[in-house]
């Protein structure tokens, strides 16, 4: 195995040894290099003994000194390898529910353990083998985020459409025994892994504490594009209440022995059940924030604190009017924040617009799945004031495109107004509302 070097940074340790682009990195200090994990793990030494294969196929040995983790190599892809696809056929897979005609990359199902470590992606373990688990343990890659869904092996096979899905649950126990920290999620489907199955999964995962740091229960996302797929229904109010009750009951017993909560219901369950969201203290250090767990409570707390920091009767130098576009789920919270800002700040007017999801259907209410055209259509014909603020989670990681390939520049042009993406941070949100930039 080897990885191809695409270019060499000028004035780097590698450039001083005349290593050329197109060469291959075979090993570092005797360790084979297969991908980014091997590379990052093994270059963390002061002296690196490399085996390089030149473009003509001949090998040479090179010693780099005083690298401090920087060799100067650049590679064709970030992973230095192909991204690993998902080997499952889950009954709840969101990608299977996407409409046709979107950009090709959106249809790729990834299940790559390396992305779990690098970017926090969740993995199912079904495309890993014993050697992969050994490498995670050897390198002490931690934390690992795992899509468990259920600790019932037979049910996991049924839900994930993979014969290995039940067997690889043993990997979770191996990783936990080796001290690897684990964050776990259960995508709940009514009639499958909720109810008593949920209680069983909580009990089994809780036994692996402290390696298992958190368990998130999130509701299955169902779009309007489910023709030919397994018949699934969204959670009712009563079913959402049951999920919350079971998680609260489990946490009550867990707290007695460990003085902390380990299991969390996604914000959507509370909104669907018509219950107030828990206070921020409930979520500890927010280990499942990217899963929509505690996001509402944290944004509310940050916004309240940011507003409290402003002097009484705070006045803007000139009148400012701003429109905030948000998803259905967050609408009431953003409206609450806007109203509080208007009460304390003079010369500000805020209009909050609820954007319904037409691309995926009304059952999809989170802001992160809003597309550009849905936002534009909802705002069309409305007075948009000086600026439109949108959730930055609508955009892909690079921050440039919506799910439907519309760019921020195109939205600016279509709406004839400045559109500003805003991250989910109460302090930043208040800054943007007031028209302030980062210091």
> How many strand units?
14
Assembly classification: single chain
> Helix coverage percent of residues?
25-40%
Q: Could you tell me the strand content as a percent range?
A: 15-25%
Q: How many whole angstroms does the radius of gyration measure?
A: 25 Å
The CATH architecture name of the largest domain reads Alpha-Beta Horseshoe
- By secondary-structure content and strand pairing, the structural class works out as alpha/beta
CATH topology of the largest domain: the name is: pyruvate-formate lyase- activating enzyme
Distance between the termini: 47 Å
Our count of domains comes out at: 3
Question: Tell me, what is the CATH class of the largest domain?
Answer: Alpha Beta
Which regions have little confidence, pLDDT < 50, spanning 5+ residues?
none
CATH superfamily of the largest domain: pyruvate-formate lyase- activating enzyme
Major β-sheet annotation: 6 strands, antiparallel
> How many helix segments?
13
Q: Look at the structure and give the mean pLDDT.
A: 92
Shape descriptor reads: globular
Query: Which series of helices and strands comes N to C?
Result: EEEHEEEHHEHHEHEHEHHEHEHEHEH
Task: Explain what you see.
The chain is α/β, with parallel strands linked by helices and 439 residues long. The protein folds into three domains: 3-75, Pdz3 Domain, CATH 2.30.42.10; 95-293, pyruvate-formate lyase- activating enzyme, CATH 3.80.30; 301-433, 3-Layer(aba) Sandwich (Rossmann fold), CATH 3.40.50. The protein has helices spanning 36-42, 113-119, 130-139, 153-160, 169-177, 195-206, 237-258, 267-273, 295-308, 331-344, 372-379, 408-415, 426-433; strands at 3-8, 24-28, 31-32, 47-53, 59-65, 73-75, 144-147, 182-188, 212-219, 263-265, 314-327, 345-355, 387-391, 418-422. The strands form three sheets. Strands 1, 2, 3, 4, 5 and 6 form a six-stranded antiparallel beta sheet that branches. Strands 7-8-9-10 form a four-stranded parallel beta sheet. The protein has a four-stranded parallel beta sheet with strand order 12-11-13-14, with helices on both faces. The protein is globular. The mean pLDDT is 92.
């Amino acid at each position: 195995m080897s990885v191809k070097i695409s270019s060499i940074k000028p004035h780097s340790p590698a450039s001083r040894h005349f290593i050329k682009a197109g060469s291959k990195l075979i090993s570092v200090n005797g360790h084979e290099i297969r991908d980014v994990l091997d590379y990052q793990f093994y270059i963390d030494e002061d002296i690196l003994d490399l085996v390089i294969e030149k473009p003509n196929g001949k090998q040479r040995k090179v010693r780099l000194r005083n690298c401090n983790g920087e060799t100067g190599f650049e590679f064709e892809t970030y992973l230095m390898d192909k991204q690993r696809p998902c080997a499952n056929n889950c009954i709840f897979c969101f990608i299977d529910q996407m409409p046709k005609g979107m950009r090709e990359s959106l249809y790729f199902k990834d299940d790559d353990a390396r992305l779990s470590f690098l970017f926090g992606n969740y993995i199912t373990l079904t495309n890993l083998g014993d050697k992969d688990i050994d490498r995670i343990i050897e390198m002490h890659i931690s934390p690992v985020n795992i899509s468990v869904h259920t600790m019932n092996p037979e049910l996991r096979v049924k839900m994930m459409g993979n014969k290995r899905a039940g067997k690889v649950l043993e990997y979770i126990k191996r990783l936990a025994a080796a001290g690897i920290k684990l964050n776990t999620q259960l995508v709940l489907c009514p009639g499958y892994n909720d109810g008593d199955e949920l209680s069983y999964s909580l009990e089994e995962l809780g036994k692996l504490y402290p390696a298992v740091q958190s368990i998130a229960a999130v509701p299955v996302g169902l779009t309007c594009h489910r023709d030919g797929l397994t018949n699934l229904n969204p959670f009712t109010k009563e079913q959402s209440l049951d999920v919350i009750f079971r998680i609260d009951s489990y946490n009550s017993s867990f707290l007695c022995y460990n003085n902390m909560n380990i299991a969390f219901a996604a914000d959507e369950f509370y909104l669907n059940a018509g219950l107030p969201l828990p206070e921020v203290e409930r979520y500890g250090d927010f280990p499942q924030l990217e899963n929509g767990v505690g996001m509402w409570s944290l944004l509310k707390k940050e916004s309240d604190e940011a507003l409290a920091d402003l002097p009484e009767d705070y006045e803007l130098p000139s009148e400012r009017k701003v429109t905030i576009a948000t998803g259905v789920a967050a609408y009431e919270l953003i409206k609450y924040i806007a109203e509080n800002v208007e009460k304390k700040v003079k010369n500000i007017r805020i209009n909050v617009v609820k954007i319904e999801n037409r691309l995926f259907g009304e059952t999809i209410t989170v802001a992160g799945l809003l597309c550009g055209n849905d936002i534009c259509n909802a705002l069309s014909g409305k007075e948009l004031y000086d600026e439109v603020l949108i959730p930055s989670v609508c955009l892909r990681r690079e921050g440039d495109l919506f799910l439907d390939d519309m760019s921020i520049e195109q939205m600016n042009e279509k709406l004839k107004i400045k559109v500003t993406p805003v991250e989910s941070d109460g302090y930043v949100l208040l800054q943007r509302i007031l028209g302030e930039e980062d210091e």
